[in-house]
Specification:
28% of the residues lie in helices and 22% in strands. It folds into two domains: 154 residues, Rossmann fold (3-Layer(aba) Sandwich); 151 residues, Dihydrodipicolinate Reductase, domain 2, CATH 3.30.360. The chain contains twelve helices and 15 strands. An eight-stranded mixed β-sheet has the order 3-4-2-1-5-6-8-7, sandwiched between helices. A seven-stranded mixed β-sheet has the order 10-11-9-12-15-14-13. The relative contact order is 0.15. It starts with a strand and ends in a 16-residue tail after the last helix. The chain is an alpha/beta fold. The chain is globular and about 60 Å long. InterPro entries: AGPR, AGPR_AS, AGPR_dimerisation_dom, AGPR_type-1, NAD(P)-bd_dom_sf, Semialdehyde_DH_NAD-bd.
């Protein structure tokens, strides 16, 4: 099955290439960015001797000629300009941007005017634990954000136990790669090294995505992301008020018993044990009516690229675990 990548320059593009060149059924037939005229190993020297394919300047007709499915690792607004003509030409799309994750009114409030409203009506949100069956027949998938993936997976099993109209508090830490390759003062080494800080507290645009997929009001989600001096990884510490007497860990295990990429831990989880994998590790602890949930993922993998390949597997009728890394690279 021929697939392509548009947006191969960034970290998520690199992770996609690494998986697709080793995938049992996908043939990486097209690689592109906004400029072309280079090779993938020139962009990412770590691929030398593994993949040295030419990188084209992105072109819709060329994508449609070479690919049955394409991954768009592009910024929001840029991605939707490709989705509309690609869907019209019969190419399936996994979009890693935010362009199709939200209803129109919420998207335009937090991002920009939308130029492809028609495709919003049949997009599938790419969280397999929520929409596995729908993904199997999808033509367009909106790959979730990294923070929403971590938070939603942690919260899903306990929403029925949550006391209505009580706050959901999410304290999340992420590695610097989540900011992408673009240089900025915030992600400068001198600023990040030996430092830790919150950014966009309570107003980050991933908060409405979390609220929307959990079916709660935006006002109930109190989300504060932090940047930590690590390359990759994400840990969300989540607090909710619950009611009733129940075994929280048993409920968590039962909820995810058939999900290959969620691991329930009896000990607090960490980022290193999921690095380079599609796993989401979750820990839960109950104290009276307070529930603490810790959810760890690799922001570049489960938070972006490996989850995108899982979605593509489902869209193309393959086992969702095919070609997905499952061993963390811990020392």
């Amino acid at each position: 099955m021929n697939v392509g990548i548009v947006g191969a320059t960034g970290y998520t593009g690199l992770e996609l290439v690494k998986m697709l060149v080793k995938h049992p059924r996908f043939q990486l037939a097209y690689i592109a960015n906004s400029e072309g005229d280079t090779t993938i190993n020139e962009l990412h020297p770590s691929l030398s001797g593994v993949c040295e394919d030419k990188v084209e300047k992105a072109d819709v007709d060329a994508i449609a000629k070479h690919c049955e499915l394409v991954f768009l690792a592009l910024p929001h607004k840029t991605a939707m300009a490709y989705v509309k003509p690609l869907i019209a030409k019969g190419v399936k799309v996994v979009d890693l941007s935010a362009d199709y994750r939200l209803p129109l009114d919420i998207y335009e409030e937090f991002y920009c005017p939308h130029t492809d409203v028609e495709n919003l009506s049949h997009v599938v949100y790419g969280l397999p634990e929520l929409f596995r069956q729908e993904l199997k027949s999808a033509k367009l998938v909106a790959n979730p954000g990294c923070f929403p993936t971590s938070a939603i997976l942690g919260l899903l099993p306990f929403m029925s136990k949550r006391v209505a109209d009580t706050p959901i508090i999410i304290d999340a830490k992420t590695g610097v790669s989540g900011a992408g390759k673009k240089l900025s003062e915030v992600t400068h080494f001198v600023n990040v090294n030996d430092n830790l800080f919150a950014y966009n507290p309570l107003m980050h645009r991933h908060a409405p995505e979390i609220a929307n997929k959990l079916g709660v009001d935006f006002e109930m989600v109190n989300f504060v992301p932090h940047l930590v001096p690590v390359t990759r990884g994400m840990l969300s510490s989540i607090y909710i008020t619950v009611e009733g007497d129940f075994d929280a860990e048993a409920l968590l295990r039962e909820h995810y018993k058939n999900d290959a990429h969620v691991r329930v831990s009896s000990k607090p989880v960490d980022m290193k044990n999921v690095a380079g994998t599609n796993f989401c590790d979750i820990y839960v602890q109950k104290k009276g009516n307070l529930l603490f949930i810790a959810s760890a993922i690799d922001n570049l993998m489960r938070g972006a690229s490996s989850q995108a390949v899982v979605n593509a597997n489902l869209m193309m009728g393959l086992d969702e675990t095919m070609g997905i890394p499952d061993i963390a690279y811990v020392p």
